[in-house]
UniProtKB/TrEMBL annotation:
This is M14 family metallocarboxypeptidase. Gene3D superfamilies: Zn peptidases. It comes from the Bacteria. Keywords: Hydrolase, Metal-binding, Zinc. Belongs to the peptidase M14 family. Its cofactor is Zn(2+). The keyword Chaperone does not apply. Residues 27-300 form the Peptidase M14 domain. It comes from Oceanimonas smirnovii.
Length: 300
């Protein structure tokens, strides 16, 4: 059974356990200085909009998106980062894409980037929101996660028109040391380690797979950082490897961010920032390479 420091093994958390967990969370970095300031610098070149506000106690976090200058009739691309706030390169990779490559797609595609979906969790370097809910299992009707609900509302009118949605994530060593044990404890289940893959991988949609698209992204990212190998069971994080560097989930069924639209092309990136073979700069660059490759393939 779980030996996590909160709760009783085998019993799901109640309000007391959630409150105990929340009291332990500490602000470790600044959304305002690291994310909002970067978005503000981009406002002279692109359209910036606030699509909601996250309220946690007496804290207020504006939820921000960036888009290029839209033209009627062009396909729509959605890029999301920071659904899990602790996954740093998802946030800064999304911002770096806009800064370095956003103008390159003018007249070819209407893109919308939500770089930091979960700002409270970004500051706490955490996977969950303040209610101990995983936003990336909450992209569904009547979502329990305010962050997910706000993004779904932003995208609602575009949902059927999105050609590509790429959702930027990381798999970190803390998944195994903190977040998966916490999840097991929260849900009253035994914790079963499944290892951390060393390298980049993708999550395709098992309900509508696009293997050639996924491999085009893998090929581009491989120029920047290494691709995660399958383990001795032929798996990555407990899921069968369906192609080199690719696993597949039923994205919409699981309430995952990448499954929130009717896009033909969907993928979730997973960078491994704790690898001795990767730097933070490489991780950001890998996310950028993935976005550009995904867009180029979808538009080809």
């Amino acid at each position: 059974m779980s030996t996590y420091h909160i709760g009783i093994p085998g019993q799901p958390w109640g309000e007391a356990e959630r409150a105990e967990w929340l009291a332990l969370q500490r602000r470790q970095r600044s959304y305002k200085k690291e994310v909002l300031a970067a978005i503000e610098r981009l406002a002279s070149r692109f359209e910036v909009q606030q699509y909601g506000e996250l309220t946690v106690g007496d804290e207020r976090f504006p939820l921000m998106a960036i888009r290029n200058h839209w033209q009627e009739g062009l396909p729509v691309v959605l890029v999301t980062g920071g659904v899990h706030g602790y996954e740093t390169s998802g946030v800064h990779g999304a911002l770096q894409f806009v800064e370095q490559h956003g103008e390159r797609y003018t007249g070819r595609v209407n893109w919308l980037v939500a770089p930091c979906v979960s700002p409270w969790a970004y500051e706490r370097i955490h996977r969950w929101n303040a209610n101990a809910i995983d936003p990336n299992r909450s992209f569904r009707e009547n979502s329990p996660a305010e962050e997910s609900a706000a993004l779904m509302q932003l995208v609602a009118q575009l949902r059927e028109h999105v050609l590509l949605h790429i959702d930027l994530h990381e798999t970190t060593d803390t998944d195994e040391s903190e977040f998966r044990p916490a999840l097991a404890a929260r849900d009253g289940k035994p914790y079963e380690p499944c290892g951390i893959p060393d390298g980049f991988y993708l999550v395709d949609d098992s309900e509508s797979p696009q293997p050639d698209f996924q491999q085009a992204v893998i090929a581009a990212v491989e120029k920047v950082t290494h691709i995660a190998p399958a383990d001795d069971k032929g798996e990555i994080i407990g899921s069968p490897v369906v192609a080199r560097g690719v696993i597949a989930y039923p994205l919409t069924q699981l309430g995952l961010c990448a499954g929130m639209t009717a896009a033909r092309y969907k993928t979730t990136t997973e960078v491994y920032p704790d690898s001795p073979r990767a730097t933070p700069e490489q991780c950001n660059a890998a996310q950028v390479a993935a976005v550009c490759a995904a867009m180029d393939y979808a538009l080809s």
